[in-house]
Amino acid sequence: MTVTVLIADDQDMVRAALRAILDRRPDLEVVGEAADGERAVALAAELRPDVVLMDVRMPGLTGVEATRRILGAAVPSKILVLTTFDLDEYVQSALRAGASGFLLKNASPEQLCDAVRAVAAGNAVLAPAVTRRIAEAFQAPPAKAAVDGLTARELEVLVLVGRGLSNARIARTLDLSESGVKSRVNRILTRLGLENRVQAALLAREAGLLDELP
Questions:
Q1: Where's the Response regulatory domain (predicted)?
Q2: pTM of the model
């Protein structure tokens, strides 16, 4: 199955480099490019790509607002935020807007391609070098108190979400049905007041679950 990608970045050279990397992979296909947020919103609605690679710092409509508009319009694309700065204030806003994760622009070509595939599969992608700092800055409920009300099974699911596993892999790991995992993930998000899997992954890390459990 080919993953379709829309690249949104205001720098011509960056877009060209990203396209060259992605188009060399037989399972990835760049279907469009946007040089600003307005164009990204329009192309996402028109092309409905699996993944939008979204630069957060663009003139005019920022990547954060473009992310909000794309997801608010129920376009089925996943948003993978690209940033040069590991503690860019826009990253946190993009995650709250519903982005599926973020990746630094100095990531290797393989890291980029793996991240695109992971996001397309419904997983959360967080640049590992800065995930903890983003989690610390993320305005979530007090993490430990928030997860105390979850059942043992929900905690297991939350840990695996935090580790970036898809619903299918969680189902195989815990010997559950995929629909059962989806139901539990939705229940966890509702009970914790979170909007998406990325926020759940951040909360799991902040609560120390990824350190405490095998």
A1: 4-120
A2: 0.73
